[in-house]
C-alpha cells in the first residue's frame, strides 16, 4: 500500500451531487450496503456530469476528529455530480457540495487498505501541516483508475482544509 506523502492542494468549485446516503459509523460500517443499493440505479441519474463516483462523508461537526470515537455516526453518500437538481430519481437525494480548499491525496491499492492512508492523513499530515480540518464534507473520487479491491486501484482522497490561525 502506497500513498502520496505530500498532497496536492486544490480549490474545488461548488458541485451539485445526486445519490443515496446512509447513517453509519466506523464501528458499524454500512458503506458496502450503500454502494450495493446505489450502483444498480446510478444510470437513472440522467443529468450527470462525467463518470466519476463520489464517496462522501458528512460529519456533524469539526470536533468529530478532535475527540475521535469510532461509534460516532455520520452521513455516508454514494453520489454522482449533476448539472442541476431538476430530475432526481426516487429514493435519491441532492447535496450541494460547497467549494473550498482541499488537500488531495492519492490512495493506491485495494479500498480495504484505505485505513492506513487515513491514519497517515489525520494522524501525521494534518497535525504537521500549516492547515486544520475545515467543516465541509470529506470525499473520495472513484474515477477511471478505481478498481475496488485490485492492488492497482487508485482513488483521490479529498480532505477539506483551511490555514491555521
Oligomer: single chain
End-to-end gap = 34 Å
- Helix tally equals 2
Give the class from helix and strand content and strand pairing. Answer: mainly beta
The percent range for helix content is 10-25%
Strand elements, count:
10
The coarse overall form would be: globular
Biggest sheet architecture: 10 strands, antiparallel
Low-confidence segments, given as residue ranges, are none
Report the average pLDDT across residues. 91
Rg, Å, rounded: 15 Å
Element order, helices and strands? EEEHEEEEHEEE
User: What proportion strand?
Assistant: 35-45%
How would you summarize what this structure contains?
The chain has helices spanning 31-38, 114-128; strands at 2-3, 8-12, 15-24, 48-58, 74-82, 93-97, 100-108, 131-133, 138-142, 154-163.
Question: What key attributes describe this structure?
Answer:
165 residues, mainly beta, 10-stranded antiparallel beta sheet
Structural account:
The chain has helices at 31-38, 114-128; strands at residues 2-3, 8-12, 15-24, 48-58, 74-82, 93-97, 100-108, 131-133, 138-142, 154-163. The longest helix has 15 residues, at 114-128. With 165 residues, the chain is mostly beta strands.
Amino acid at each position: 500500500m502506497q500513498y502520496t506523502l505530500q498532497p496536492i492542494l486544490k480549490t474545488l468549485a461548488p458541485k451539485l451531487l445526486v445519490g443515496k446516503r446512509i447513517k453509519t459509523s466506523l464501528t458499524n460500517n454500512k458503506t458496502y450496503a450503500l454502494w450495493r443499493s446505489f450502483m444498480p440505479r446510478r444510470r437513472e441519474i440522467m443529468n450527470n456530469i462525467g463518470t466519476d463516483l463520489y464517496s462522501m462523508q458528512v460529519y456533524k461537526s469539526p470536533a468529530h476528529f478532535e475527540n475521535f470515537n469510532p461509534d460516532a455516526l455520520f452521513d455516508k453518500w454514494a453520489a454522482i455530480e449533476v448539472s442541476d437538481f431538476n430530475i432526481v430519481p426516487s429514493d435519491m437525494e441532492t447535496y450541494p457540495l460547497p467549494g473550498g480548499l482541499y488537500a488531495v491525496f492519492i490512495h493506491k491499492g485495494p479500498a480495504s487498505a484505505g485505513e492506513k492512508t487515513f491514519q497517515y492523513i489525520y494522524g501525521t499530515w494534518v497535525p504537521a501541516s500549516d492547515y486544520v480540518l475545515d467543516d465541509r464534507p470529506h470525499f473520495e473520487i472513484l474515477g477511471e483508475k478505481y478498481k475496488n479491491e485490485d492492488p492497482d486501484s487508485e482513488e483521490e482522497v479529498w480532505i477539506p482544509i483551511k490555514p491555521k490561525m
